[in-house]
Amino acid sequence: MPHKSTLVVIPARLAASRLPDKPLAMIGADPMIVHVWKRAIAADVGPVIVACGDKPIAEAIRAAGGTAVLTAAELPSGSDRVWVAAQTFDSESKYDHVINIQGDLPTLEPALVSAAVDALVQGNADMGTLVARITDDRERDDPNVVKAAVDFAPGESVAPALYFSRNRIPSGDGPTYHHIGIYAYTRAALKRFVALPPAGLETRERLEQLRALTNGMTISAGLVDSIPFGVDTPADLERARRILAP
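and the corresponding structure tokens:
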């Protein structure tokens, strides 16, 4: 369902160790960041802005007809970039929800954007995010696939996210869930989150969302059927080009 009180923010910067200048990598006729922006627009949940750490990204978005907000390059994380851009674009706090979409998801299904906001609202949580059931056994023990401990009641598709890990969780028989890194926040929760210092578990697992759980914030997870494909390496980029080839 649409949530017109939602502001969508896509943080992007050029620095990337495995794929330099990743947001501007061409996929067909458009840079990757423009593909992500177009898919966020197609979700139709509210205005979409790109929080840019570098001027060339802003230029690419504006050339495509989008709204770009320049943010300081030295900001420590995408979440910080999202918060600064949201304050700049929406200084009057008109939007109750802010959704953070990674800028390296060029094949993102627009429906996932609204699903994250649905998880936030239905779960009455500080944050909403998404998970999908793992069907490939290799993913269960792959540290690059983040797992979420979520216990969905029969017939339900929204439940509290209890923990996140790069290891297989939970143990025992039953489904294992792949965490999808799209986050919807209440505006107050995002403000609180970026003001918190990094947590010990966050540092150990290298997962920013554990800062929220460590500090008593609630995260609600929505169960979806598809996992968006993220681009991190040159091989990923070639795969995205094949998928999106006309």
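(Above: one complete record from the training split.) The radius of gyration is 17 Å.
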